[in-house]
Amino acid sequence: MKNRAHSLLKTDFRRNWVLYAMFLPVAAYFLVFYYAPMVGVSIAFQKFNMRRGIFGSDWVGFDNFATLFSGDTFPLVMRNTSVIALLNLTVGFVVPIILAIVFSELRDSAKAYKRTVQTISYMPFFVAAVVTTSLVKEFLGASGGLTKILSFFGLEQQNWLANPKPPVFWIIMCATEIWQGMGYGAIVYVAAIASINGDLFEAAAIDGANRWKRLWRITLPSITPLIIMMLTLKAGTVLMTGFDKALLLYMPKTYDVSDVLYTYTYRMAFSAQADYGLSAASGLFQSAINTTLLLASNYISRKVAKTSLF
Amino acid sequence: MKKLVSILLIALLALSLAACGNSNGANSAEPPVQGAVGNSDASADEVKTEKYTYWLYNGEDASYYANYNENPVIKYQLDQVWDTSSGKTKLDIDFWQPVTGSERDNFNTLLGTGEYADIMTMTAYDGSIVDLYKDGVILDLTEYVEKYMPHYIEFLDAHPDYAITATNVVDGEKKYLQIYAYASRGDVFWGYQYRRDWLIKYGKNPKDGSSFSGGCTKKTADGKDDPESWEDNVIFPSGGKDPIYLSDWEWMFEIFQTAIDDIGIKDGYVLSMYYPGYNENGELVSAFGGGGGHWYKTPENQVKFNASTENFRAYLQCMSTWNEKGWLDKAFPEHASDMFFRVDDVKVRQGKVGFWYGTLGELKNGIDLGDELTAGSWVAPARHPINDIYGTDESKNIAPYTFYEKGLEALPISVSDKAKDKNLEAFFKWMDYRYAPETALSSSLGFSKEEYEMLKPELYTREGLTEGAYYAVETESGTKYHLVDKLYYDGGTLVNAVRGIRIPGLDDAARVLAAMPDEWGVYSSTGSFRGSFTSQLSPEDSETYNKINTRVREFMSKNVPGFILGEKDPFSDDDWNAFANALGKYGVQEATEILQNLLDSLG
Asked: Which chain A residue has its CA at the smallest distance from B137's CA?
């Protein structure tokens, strides 16, 4: 059996050696940049000393994890991280789909308008986080444009970013993510909707289905596998999104609502003497959660929607 | 034709590259300048060049030069030739300068990857120096210092308190692991300041209720008010011409509030505040009879942690009261990215603030832009105050002794193992040259007119400094030096770029006419710990202390603003005890013991 497999592989290699050769750089890329650095995971279990390196530093078992979890503010940090992640995974995930559907529902005569709006909507994706946060600060500062609009509607004029009450910072973070990512995120859905067989819509229209029914009965079911795939992928990275913006937008006054795992680790590990062990422990912890979320999401979608990524 | 064009282009490219090469080597191509130590007679063929790399914590504005070896003073010094046991040697130093804001990241990356420089400014290093030495990263400099740096040793002999921390104890033996820059006087360039013109306009003499008067009494050659000629008859409640006690401050604040209301400044306020609600250095906190917010040493050499004491509580009670009276900037926690000496700078310069902690440049008519809010403004310096109102007797009438003060020591450097096979004799002779009183002046002040005329440095010519960077003034205490006006009133980039201050040496400040107003130098900061003190901690103690300090700082920055802004009550025992007890859980006692043990061991 083993010999047969070996022989098959050999034959396949001889026949498709060009393809194997083309795959080599890709494999090398993944090995060098993704698998080799995994050795660094051991730093999470060490009192890491940069000069002694991974193989020379002292092992401390789970001490770094204990330090991470025993921080007074760790529960708050986890709450903030989870809430912001949940908002991104729900509201932040749905908005690009809605936008794509809206684009696809535009009449053919509005092609120029559609293209213009689509271009404008995905431009923010290419704006650096530091610029995005500067804009947010300008708009939501004590005398910012959005603040003035909000105060027109009866809300107190204030620097919204300095508001330490629970939902405010989370909403700002989620809205910023949506503003920046919805246009770019919609591209893949717009393409998927465009590839649905037009005959289906035509037949449904002849049978008397209105736009709303066509949306629910044809459009959404057709792109469901894609939605599930995207949701599964997003679940695997949801804890990692928005760190840069949180770091640039938060301040000590709002730590209770704005401090997320990344910012907390950053301060604990690097504000005085660099603590790489603690930083690596936090990274590993987040990776473990992300992997769990990814597997759970995949499992649930396989069970419920009968489709999954793997 | 194409071939011809190609050949021409290649030739052009080759010429350009050759030109670049010449430009880089410009330093060595120039003849050596006459120097106090260098051998100017040495012909180029008998002089060796020793190359070093040098990691700077910060350099100068890139608009002046790209590499610090182009700094006119440093360039002059690098042109010198040093007599060493292996012959005449010149130094060729490539300075590595990190991007502003990422100094520590850059330093840690270089250290971690082993790609660090021969010489490193250690300002970015928070760990244990001894640890670094034991790991073989830095060299023991004792032999070099003792053999080639007589002026450095001379300075330490004259300043025994600094000599104590100039060395580190390694396995019971004292070793020079770092070289420090030292100053002969610790001037500061920032401090408390206030709108004295508002006092004149809106205040009344606290004794007889009469109005104040004052202003500039002379004009400059171009017809403007001479900022040096200000005179007024302002008297404070304590009886003097300057504020001394918090009661003087509060008297002032009431006047400032009147001014703000009268002028109609809607987004102005009386007093700016550093974002955590206190200054870790001790400014204002120390007015209440102790140190800053964190650890300090008493005059009896006792290490104490201040934030859980009644002194700090009195501070919070005072701030809370000021907030209730509407004097504080309520948005202070939002200015988290402002430096402590430049809080809400825009508003200060717009003339919307009465009292702030600022720099020399704002004093006198420094914020006068001629507009509605700043025209005729006059900013005066104020000393650190003494509390005479809040808390118990232990918090009152004690002269402050913990605050930021430009240390006499700075910029420690270490030499790494990368340079162990290089001729370090020449390097240390150069270092010592920078501590010699007769040659240190050009490093700390720049070139005099005579030196400029002899050397004609391009930067000086370009910036119009044809009279040199400073001039001599005869005073009662002998000859003193004064920066030329263009540098004296400079915002900080040019004045640094024309001097050679980023490398250790003797900052001969005592020979310079003080720019610091007397009010900022009334008290001495004896309660603060210098960097060289904490660098004496053992690796384990250093790690413990840093961890505790980080967590305390985090806790304080989250909780202190609440006490000031009225979310918690510093007058309430419950709120106060909860705060003080929480601080205890972070290990402040352990850190106190670590520092006390070190202080005791250093005698």
From this structure: A51
